[in-house]
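hey so u asked for the seq, here:
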Amino acid sequence: MIAMFASLLVAAASPAPLPGSIAACPRAEARIIQDSNFTMPDNARPTRSRVWFALDIGSDGRVRRSAMVESSGDAAVDELAAKAVAEWRFAPQTGACMSTSTAWSHGWEMPAESIASPAPPGAVSLPCAAPFVRVTRFPVPRRREPPGTAAIDIVLDATARVTGVHLARSSGNTKADYFAAILGRNATYVFERQPGCTPTATTYRLELTFH
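ran it, structure tokens below
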């Protein structure tokens, strides 16, 4: 579920990239670098096989937002799992000398022996959260921008098509801000579907950190 950047135009047979060039920056997907302990309470009685969350990860690796998309069926287990998720830290996804915000999903499988009477499909109803947004295609910049973080509000319709772009927070460099807005407009987005929820128009705050 992690957004992917386009190819960095580097082939194995290519000469070593010059320092400071876009090609000098490796591409990497987001990954967990610090998790938190999640221990099932002794009296846990889940009725589902797992508890699962959708997360929005900032360009600095922090959890900006999370929502439970699958309940264990046990309120105590769900609460402990939600607290554990909030303490995770990530290495953000990077590429072309940038790191960017992205959607992520993760959770825990319930031990089979702890599951009480299994609930029938659809028995656990969860409120629909604002859509979690994943970037499926991201333009590759031609040059490195000065270090800084720009936040761009990407206005998306119910099909995740871009209908507007607004600078929400400046990186401190006017040219970099303009470039970030261009990248945000030309990227392609999808909504991470939540069970039983219909996609709706939303505004996604895309963070771009130039390195």
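The two ends are 24 Å apart (CA to CA). The chain has two helices and twelve strands.
lmk if thats what u needed
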